[in-house]
């Protein structure tokens, strides 16, 4: 049975029409609960645009090691890339409330257009050290996609930034380690910075800069 409804497919095709360059989704799987669904979801998306390609790899593969996709010990892990970009990452199935953000991320990776203000882009360009942003979400949270998209936009603008959507219930041990009680919870370089809520892009960037200082 298909995951996407006819309405979903029509909506996605309309958004995918904005794509300009090829995007590949590397999906890393093991025997996790949502791995098959994540693969099937991306297979259906790949049917909707010749510019969107899916590659499925084992979580214990060399490619997974290259992208450090196995760092939390389980799948599914999805990395969207234009061939160079590595920092747009999903730990957990990008469905529910996150589905729209996932589709928009695909288009943004394809076009290279994040929609961020020029002053924010300029400040992001000045970051010259590694930054990891974790955005803990649940698939029923209506505010989480905004936080995920902002974090991923930052990663698209600066290769020093890796931004992860982490589905809190699929990665329960990690959520417990970071004391997740409400979502979206954003952690910057693990415990150097932390806040809860989908903050506007300028405030989100300030949180990142404060964590680096």
Brief synopsis:
This protein is 38% helix and 21% strand.
In terms of topology, how is this protein built?
Blueprint: H1 6-16, E1 23-29, H2 35-46, E2 52-58, H3 62-66, E3 77-81, E4 88-91, H4 98-111, H5 118-125, E5 131-137, H6 144-157, E6 161-167, H7 172-177, E7 185-188, E8 193-196, H8 201-212
Parallel strand pairs: 1-2, 4-6, 5-6
Antiparallel strand pairs: 1-3, 3-4, 5-7, 7-8
Helix pairs in contact: 4-6
Task: Explain what the structure shows.
- The chain has an eight-stranded mixed sheet with strand order 2-1-3-4-6-5-7-8.
- Helix 4 runs parallel beside helix 6.
- The protein is of the alpha/beta class and 213 residues long.
- The chain has a single domain, classed as Glutaredoxin.
- The longest helix is centred in the middle third of the chain and has 14 residues.
From the 3D coordinates, which CATH architecture would you assign? Answer: 3-Layer(aba) Sandwich
Question: Which fold name fills CATH's third level, the topology?
Answer: Glutaredoxin
Secondary-structure element string: HEHEHEEHHEHEHEEH
- Unreliable residue runs: none
Strand line-up in the sheet with most strands = 2-1-3-4-6-5-7-8
CATH C-level name? Alpha Beta
Instruction: Tell me the strand percentage band.
Output: 15-25%
Radius of gyration: 16 Å
The separation of the N and C termini measures 50 Å
Number of domains: 1
Please bin the fraction of helical residues.
25-40%
Biggest beta-sheet profile = 8 strands, mixed
Number of helical elements:
8
Helix/strand structural class: alpha/beta
The shape, in one word, is globular
Count of strand segments: 8
Instruction: Please state the average pLDDT score.
Output: 97
């Amino acid at each position: 049975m298909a995951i996407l409804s006819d309405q979903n497919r029509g909506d996605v095709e309309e958004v995918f029409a904005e794509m300009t360059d090829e995007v590949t989704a590397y999906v890393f799987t093991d025997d996790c609960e949502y791995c098959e669904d994540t693969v099937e979801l991306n297979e259906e998306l790949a049917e909707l645009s010749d510019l969107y390609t899916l590659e499925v790899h084992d979580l214990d593969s060399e490619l997974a090691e290259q992208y450090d996709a196995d760092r939390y010990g389980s799948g599914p892990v999805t990395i969207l890339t234009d061939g160079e970009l590595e920092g747009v990452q999903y730990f957990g199935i990008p469905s529910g409330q996150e589905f729209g953000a996932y589709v928009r991320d695909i288009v943004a990776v394809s076009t290279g257009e994040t929609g961020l203000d020029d002053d924010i882009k300029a400040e992001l360009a000045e970051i010259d050290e590694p930054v990891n942003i974790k955005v803990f979400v649940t698939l029923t949270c209506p505010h989480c996609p905004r936080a995920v998209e902002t974090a991923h936009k930052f990663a698209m603008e600066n290769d020093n930034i890796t931004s992860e959507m982490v589905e809190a219930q699929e990665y329960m041990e990690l959520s417990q380690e970071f004391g997740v009680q409400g979502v979206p919870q954003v952690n910057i370089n693990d415990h150097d910075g932390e806040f809860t809520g989908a903050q506007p892009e300028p405030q989100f960037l300030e949180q990142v800069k404060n964590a680096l200082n």
